[in-house]
Amino acid sequence: PLLVSAHDSGCIRLWSIQGNLMKELLPFAGRPSGPLTALCTDIFTKILLTGSKEGYVFRWNMASFLEDSRNIKNAIKEELCWRAHAAEVVDLFIEEEKNVVATASIDGSVRLWHATTGYYFGFFGQARKFDLTDTSRLILPSDVGDFSAIIKEKIKRTEKKKIVYPLMLDRDK
């Protein structure tokens, strides 16, 4: 068992059931994550999705970390980042059978995305039917201008490090 918490700083913390901090992560994707507002996992807790106040969705692969969290080589990998909404993401849901992610925003929209590529399928209430088989059409919602970014493994992710800068008064200076 594992607990995951998302924070205003953009940090993701993984906790053991005993309350011990196991890992701290910050999204690397080159885009500002801002405060995290939503998170969900797949049924086997191998994939973690987080949503941010800026409308971004981040996809993390936790499979190797969960197999052996003590092994340093088994890291949590950030795989994908995309702008899902122009406003805050308030909820996420992953439907594994269809490989689809549903996102909801404070703007009142609910949108469907391909879970592994971040391709946009459409929004609830649109006139046309969802075509979940065609992921080759690169379309975007009208209020979002950037395509998904696949995170390469060779890029080193930034992890939150504990740095102490003590404030001391030096009267001689």
Can you tell me about this structure?
This protein starts with a strand and ends in a 23-residue tail after the last strand. The longest helix is centred in the middle third of the chain and has 5 residues, at 63-67. The chain has a five-stranded antiparallel beta sheet, with no helix packed on it. A four-stranded antiparallel beta sheet has the order 8-9-10-11, with no helix packed on it. The mean pLDDT is 78. A hairpin with a 4-residue loop joins β8 (89-95) and β9 (100-105). 3% of the residues lie in helices and 37% in strands. It has a single domain, classed as YVTN repeat-like/Quinoprotein amine dehydrogenase (Methylamine Dehydrogenase, Chain H, 7 Propeller). It is mainly beta and 173 residues long. The protein has one helix and twelve strands, in the order ββββββαββββββ. Keywords: Repeat, WD repeat. This is WDR64 protein. Residues 34-114 form the IP5PC-F beta-propeller domain. WD repeats lie at residues 82-118.
Largest sheet: 5 strands, antiparallel
Radius of gyration: 18 Å
Query: Helix-strand pattern, N to C?
Result: EEEEEEHEEEEEE
Number of strands: 12
Q: Remind me, CATH topology?
A: Methylamine Dehydrogenase, Chain H
Distinct helical segment count: 1
Provide the structure class. mainly beta
Tally the structural domains.
1
- What is the beta-strand fraction? 35-45%
CATH architecture: 7 Propeller
**Uncertain stretches of 5 or more adjacent residues:** none
Distance between the termini: 53 Å
> Rough shape?
globular
Helix content: under 10%
CATH class type: Mainly Beta
- Global mean pLDDT: 78
Please name the fourth-level CATH homologous superfamily: YVTN repeat-like/Quinoprotein amine dehydrogenase
Strand order of the largest sheet: 4-5-6-7-12
